[in-house]
Predict the 3D structure of the following.
Amino acid sequence: MSSSTTTTTSSSSFLTAVQTRRSIYALSNTSPIPDSRITEIVRQALLHVPSSFNSQSTRAIVLLKAEHEKLWEMTKACLEPQIPSAEQFAATSQKLDGFKAAYGTVLFFEDPAPVQALQAQFPIYADKFPQWSEHTSGMHQYTVWTALEADGLGCNLQHYNPVIDQRVQREWEVPMEWSLKAQLVFGKPEGGAKEKQFKPVEERMWVYGA
């Protein structure tokens, strides 16, 4: 097989995973893959997803089964005092119960220490490193999401930070300086994704020199 054919085959497999990664909300508390595979996917993402100046600032906590359920009960408790009416809270509670019904959650954090060290080392870029840290976190989230779905799980990404930050830090002994960025909920898919609408790529992509 020629190198060009191999490259095409490899990129096609990757792009298929990209295309099939969707937000799936109907999830059950089972998994088609073992816990060891789930944790290995997160481990490989932490090892190989790029970061600015190789800062490696992303941190992750994998919550499974009862620990995952605890997170969403905790989220409910944090939100209830902030929601003005019982009717509104009932709707929120139902939504959170949907997340709780899944199998697990990956919590994504950014550790500011490597970012601050780079700011001191390269002051000309000091104002950019926090932004690049957000890029790093997003790439980790996307990689884990795509890989879990490629192995048969369904996922959706949530952002209940900063409301739950302090409770999460106390419960799982997370360093207080870490900043919670996202919660990736996953489980066995019990339904499909909603239809996705696409804006014309021609309006979003320009090519010169081809």
Summary: The radius of gyration is 19 Å. The first strand starts at residue 27 and ends at 28.
